[in-house]
Amino acid sequence: GALTECRFLLRLRGSVLPKAAVFAMLSAAITIAVHLHYDSFGVLLDGAVGGTPVWASVTTVLGVLIVFRTNQAYSRYWEGATLLKQVRGEWLNACSSLIAFSSPDPALEEEVGKFQHQLVRFMSLLYCSALQQVALVGNDAMAVLDVGGLDEQSMQYLAECEERGDVLLQWIRRLIMHNMSIGVIPVPPPILSRVFQELSRGHVGAKDVQKIAEFPFPFPYTQLIVVVLVAHTLFTPFFAIVLTRCPVWASVLTFISVLSLWSTNYIAVELEQPFGEDVNDLPIASMMTEMNHRLAALLDERANSPADYSGTLDTTSLKTVSCLDCMFLSTKKQVSGFSKPRNSNAMAPKYSAMTAAVSSFSFRSMPTRSVSSSSGEEDWHHKHHHEVLANCPVEQIGVHSGKLVLPEPYLAAALERSGGGLDGRAEAQLAAGTPSNNLPPPEVGLSEMANDSPEVAERPAETARRSQEVAERLAETATRPPEVAEGLAETARRSQEVAERLAEMARRPPEVAEKLAEMARGSLEVAERLAELAARSAEVVGRSPQVA
Fold first, then answer.
1. Choosing a second label site near 328 at 20 to 30 A (CA), which of 25, 34, 233, 361?
2. What is the DSSP string of 7-39?
3. pLDDT for residue 167
4. E strands of 213-357, at which residues?
């Protein structure tokens, strides 16, 4: 809250205020000195009275010049960050496409593995070369994927070459063409041309980044701003004394005016060259490390094997699930400043440390659905879940049958924090070890806790309604011939009972609901056949009076 904001305002790391405050305090000290020796500066101060409007105009022009420089510096900073991200995205996407295009033929397994490992190493060297062309960081701060398996003579040539980026790009292109000719990349040329386009766009973006690093802000413009700033720092105290005649207010106004101008100018200095090692520069080393991690991830066998799907193919039963329930947690980075980290990010380390085994403690399921309270429906899970897990030791948190499990003491603490979220009966049943309607039993998983959802019971309920209609038709048909009516009426009553049971059991979990739907379809077929037999019997009765 307020403490975090105060820490942010008073943080000195990366701030330009300390450097600007030196000139501001110097100007404020001159203001106090001029006031103490007012008589000695009498002639100079009398002349400053008429020049106050002129000095105000000079200050305005100086502010415009500094603001323009700051805007240009921020544009250079943002363009550099955008281009580096685009370069990485283009080359990483090209590498990902080539790995995806690789042949699945077992006979070429060795050639495919050699091609992929060679490709990711060349791509790591290529991105590192692009960063080295613009970054002002040491070689020890940059890291690439291990090049131990590459040809030593070729690597020696690359180390002595000045245009490493062009050479590496040429190597990658030749590597692609060679493996395409031997069948390692069995894709049509029009599709493969997309990869060459991405490589070219990334190379052009890398050259655009070099433009920012090689061409600084114009020196005459910078020199003019610094000269006028020094003059403003030295002469502003005289005009401040003339305008206020109060040493305190004159010093305060001088300090604020000089501090704001020098701070804005230093911001421009920090942003004009964003490829260094300063706090406000772009994280060049981190970007290289992240590129290596992404390239290494492309070689993982699990990344090249899409997840299989064995669920239902019915599009009407699609539903959403919380990212927290399916362990698909956010991995984005938090930006420093006033933004606060969310609970999901704070809990990510504990979720990653969970194991599938249940520990020796007495576990009970974590409530993960809305429960009734005196004030209406309250989402107990989203309100107390993170707080309870944050207090529970990691080694005592487990995952069992698709559900989160907690030790009894922490679940009891969760009930206390719920503030009446669970009714007294549910809490008493929890203490007694028996399940309730509001608290799922231990054997119920996350996927089974939504058994009261209308979408789950939609299909079997519809089948039950159709069976109900068939039963009504059979009852109507049974009133026609007396000989057949008794048997049909009995069948209708049984179909009615089956329909009621299906409607009652349709609220059960999805696994049971699918079986019930299958049983209901069988019952429906039997009922339809009986209806057809009844219709034929009625037709026979109408044709034969003796049978009637």
1. 361
2. HHHT--TT-SHHHHHHHHHHHHHHHHHHHHTTT
3. 93
4. none
Q: pTM, whole model, 2 decimals? A: 0.60
With beta carbons less than 8 A apart as the criterion, state whether 31 and 241 touch: yes
Q: What are residue 400's phi and psi, to 5 degrees?
A: -140, 120
Task: Pull the structure tokens for residue 43.
Answer: 């002639």
Alpha carbon distance 221, 272 (integer Å)? 13
CB contact at 8 A, 147 and 125: yes
What is the maximum alpha-carbon separation in the chain?
142
CA neighbor of 233 nearest in space, from 434, 29, 498: 29
Nearest to residue 87, comparing CAs of 231, 201, 190, 246?
201
Structure tokens of 468?
């109900």
Structure tokens at 106: 């077992």
Distance CA 166, CA 130 (A): 10
Contact 374, 420 (CB under 8 A): yes
Question: How crowded is residue 305: how many other Cβ atoms within 10 Å of its Cβ?
Answer: 8
Could you give the CA distance from residue 502 to residue 504 in angstroms, rounded to a whole number? 5
Contact (Cβ atoms closer than 8 angstroms) between residue 111 and residue 179? yes
Dist CA 484 CA 536 (whole Å): 11
Q: What does 357-420 look like in DSSP terms, one character per residue?
A: S--SS-EEEPP-S-EEETTEEE-HHHHHHHHHHHHS-GGG-EEETTEEEEEHHHHHHHHHHTTS
Helix (H) or strand (E) holding 244: helix 219-244
Say whether 337 sits in a helix, a strand or coil. Answer: coil
Q: Which two tokens stand for residue 96?
A: 């990902």
Q: Averaged in consecutive runs of 10 residues, what is the pLDDT profile of the chain (548 residues)?
A: 82 90 93 79 61 82 94 94 94 95 93 94 94 86 89 91 91 95 93 94 93 90 94 88 82 93 94 88 91 93 89 82 81 53 41 33 33 36 43 46 47 48 42 40 38 47 66 60 60 71 64 67 75 70 47
Alpha-carbon gap, residue 230 to 295, rounded angstroms: 51
For residues 547 and 486, is the Cβ–Cβ distance under 8 A? no
Cα(389)–Cα(410) distance, integer angstroms? 8
* Spatial separation of the C-alpha atoms in residues 212 and 208, rounded to whole Å: 7
- What are 464's two structure tokens? 């039950």
CA atoms of 396 and 358, how far apart (whole Å):
9
What is the C-alpha to C-alpha distance for residues 159 and 132, in angstroms, rounded to an integer?
A: 13
Chain centroid to CA 407? 31
First to last CA, the chain: 89
- Angle between the N-to-C axes of helices 152-160 and 164-181, in degrees from 0 to 180, rounded to the nearest 10: 150
Whole-angstrom Cα distance, residue 123 to residue 372? Answer: 57
Q: How far lies 476's CA from each of 279, 495, 535, 543, in Å? A: 85, 13, 11, 19
Q: Is the dihedral of CA 369, 372, 374, 377 positive or negative?
A: positive
- Unique residue bearing structure tokens 């100086």: 62
Query: Distance of CA 44 to CAs 48, 49, 55, 239, Å?
Result: 6, 9, 14, 10
